[in-house]
Amino acid sequence: MPVIIKWNPTDDLFVLNETFSQMLDQVSNIFQQRKTPETSSAWAPIADMYETDNAFILHIELAGIDKETLEILFQEGALMIRGKRPFNAHMQSAKIHRIERMYGLFQRTFWIPAPVEAQTITASYDRGILNIYLPKLTHPDVEQVKIPITFK
Questions:
Q1: Is residue 110 part of a domain?
Q2: Which residues form the signal peptide (predicted)?
Q3: Is 22 helix (H, G, I), strand (E, B) or coil?
Q4: Which of 49, 60, 122, 124 is deepest in the core (most CB within 10 A)?
Q5: Domain assignment present for 131
Q6: 99-142, pLDDT tens digit by residue?
Q7: Is residue 76 a part of any domain in this protein?
Q8: What range defines the domain where residue 127 resides?
Q9: Whether the model pTM is above 0.85
Q10: Do 118 and 63 form a contact (C-beta atoms < 8 A)?
Q11: Contact 44, 29 (CB under 8 A)
C-alpha cells in the first residue's frame, strides 16, 4: 500500500538555505587559505548534521579549540557555534614548511528545520569532535483558538 507524505514547501527552503550556507563557507575557506594563520580572521569547521525520529544531531570537527572560547547559542531555530583555535606559539619562531589547518576565530550557524526542546539541548566534546543533540519538540505548544462565525 503506498504511503502518502504531506509536502511542506518550507522544507525545500531550509535545504536551499543550508546548501547556500555551505557554499559560502567553502568560498570563504578558499580565500582564508591564502592568508597566514595570524591574519586569518575567520574559518568554518566542517560538520555533519542528521535527523533521527527524536532529534537533530550535529558533529563538528573542532580539534585544538580553546575550550574557554567555545560558545553554543540557540535562538529562534538557529544554532550558532563560535570559538577560537589558537595558533601554536612554538611555530612562530620556527621555519614553517606547511600550514594547512585554519586558526583564529570561527562562527557557524545551522538552521534547524523543525522545532526543538531548546532547554534540553546537550553538547559534548570528545576527541576533537563537538557533538550536539537537539531533541525534537514532542508536544508543540500550539494554541487552538475557536473562531466565531457571524451568520447573516
A1: yes
A2: none
A3: helix
A4: 60
A5: yes
A6: 888 888 999 999 999 999 999 999 999 999 999 999 998 876 65
A7: yes
A8: 9-135
A9: no
A10: no
A11: yes
